Amino acid sequence: MASGYPANSFGRLGVACSQTITEEPFSPETSSLAGNFDTTESINSFHLPGELGDGNTVGKSKSKSGYGYNRAELGSLLAAEDDKLPPELDEDLDGVDTSLLNVPSKCAQQAEEFVKKVWAAGWNVAHHHTLPDWLKDNDFLLRGHRVPTNSFIACFKSIFRIHTETGNIWTHLLGMIAFLGIAAYFLTRPSIEIQWQEKAVFSAFFMGAILCLGFSWVFHTVYCHSERVGRFFNKLDYCGIALLTIGSFVPWLYYSFYCRLEPKVTYLALIFFLGTIAIVVSMWDKFAQPQYRPLRAGVFVALGLSGVIPAMHYVITDGFWHAINYAALGWLVLMALLYIVGAVIYAVRIPERIFPGKFDIWFQSHQIFHVFVLAAAFVHYHGISEIANYRLTLGDCIARGEVE
């Protein structure tokens, strides 16, 4: 027969539910329901828990081992405990010792308490005021913060826990997976369906989106590792935003100025230059500090608004109606609005600024910003797909006499 766990593993009564009763001699360290019996005999005795009786005043039974309490003594000592049963269990059942009906319910209660303690011990969250300064990014999120772990394993395990960064992690993790799937499908189409030039142009957008979303969810995952690790991945997060902006402009400029080489090259060079500046600024250590939140939002909003210059160029040369219907200008404007609104929400920290402590886990400003970024990326993908289809149906630039 397998022996039981020590009494302090799951509580005295808890052991009886999951372990076979042993035949070892009685000792004070054994579990409260452990008895001595032969497999051919009925259970004759139990050791009474100290809470239910005084073991010093009740005599020992004359069971096989000579230890424990006999059934008559146990029944009399537990009579008072029967009154404490819930009403639905306080009924006499024919042929059943009702004093034993306490065991299953107490087993379930103690098992539940044990699981709760294990869960609480496995992951701890803290109040904002207990965090080190480098983890205090948002003063309006009060509870549910992760504490420094100094462990990448613990950080990645936190992906499946509930805390202030859970929504930030999953919004961009799922978005990255979605764009990986879209990119894989697009780039594996046969050449007769999608030519290599289109694959190369769209790859700039896919690369920017995947890197941006990837850097973002990894940063929010390992942010609590240590100050050094958190700062490094925070810089990568900002670089990812700049890369997404650059990658988004490449296909739109390529197809909008499809047959006009000079403006196309000029605007591509401009967006690469401005994007590089944004990346350099992002690598500045002070750029990631909370007081520079408006500056961060402003840098990336300005980078996105630089697209107004080529858009106005197209409207002047080809007309507003043509720009809306054939250059996907409407989709481009919608994308810009989504980015700008998301950045503003991120900068002013709404709604948690209005209701501190009410949006600690869900629907905080950073999560809303992430959703706006995802929406803008999908809108832009649809827009550049529309303009690419239009341009490719027009035929060769030389044949149409559109080369500049």
Q: Total strand count, please?
A: 2
Radius of gyration: 34 Å
- The topology string of helices and strands comes to HHHHEEHHHHHHHHHHH
Helix fraction bin: 55-70%
Average pLDDT level: 77
Strand order of the largest sheet: 1-2
Major sheet: 2 strands, antiparallel
Summing up helix and strand content along with how strands pair, one would put the structural category as: mainly alpha
Distance between the termini: 91 Å
Number of H/I helices = 15
Which blocks of ≥5 consecutive residues have pLDDT under 50? 1-69, 88-93
Share in β-strands: under 5%
Shape: elongated
What does this entry look like structurally?
GO terms for molecular function: metal ion binding; signaling receptor activity. It is found in: Membrane. With 404 residues, the protein is mainly α. Helix content is 57%, strand content 1%. It contains 15 helices and two strands. The chain has helices spanning 12-18, 71-77, 79-82, 102-122, 152-157, 166-187, 196-222, 227-256, 261-282, 293-305, 308-318, 320-326, 329-348, 365-393, 397-400; strands at 125-126, 145-146. It has a two-stranded antiparallel sheet. Helix 7 (196-222) packs antiparallel against helix 8 and helix 8 runs antiparallel to helix 9. It is elongated and about 85 Å long. The relative contact order is 0.08. The model is unreliable at 1-69 and 88-93 (pLDDT under 50).
